[in-house]
Amino acid sequence: KDAREITKFIEPNSIDLCLTSPPYWDILNARRSADLKIGRNYTNKTQDIGNIESYNNFLDELKRIMAEVAKTIRDNGYCVMVVMDIRKGSKFYPFHSDVAKIMEEVGLTFEDLLIWDRQKEYNNCKPLGYPYKFIVNKVHEYILIFKKYGHNK
Prior knowledge:
The chain is an alpha+beta fold. Helix content is about 20%, strand content about 25%. The strands form two sheets. A four-stranded mixed sheet has the order 1-2-6-5. Strands 3-4 form a two-stranded antiparallel ribbon.
């Protein structure tokens, strides 16, 4: 099923907790430089937001999806999202900040942020960019916690 149509198969205001980790844009399609793993994507479908080339278009589509998801969350319910910031080439994208903004725009309140240390799972801490430039090797993800307040916040 397509999350864009979630309100067709889940009733509005019926969910206490949504736990999700949206695609990190089209990052799975790229070859990883630190460990030389080839790119892999979930699908080749154009509807898959992980295949959108433009970051801004990707965020717009994620917002559209999360606006529908927000409708399914009951008052005082939560949405927890696991995300990671993104670097493509020399450009850094603060994905966790962009997601926080999106979720506020769709009506959820940013309640908390946890940092998940994934050092053992990510890239074995190999240097990136060496010896040409310094790039910090990201070994953490963010767990963002949002709450849907009722009319009496």
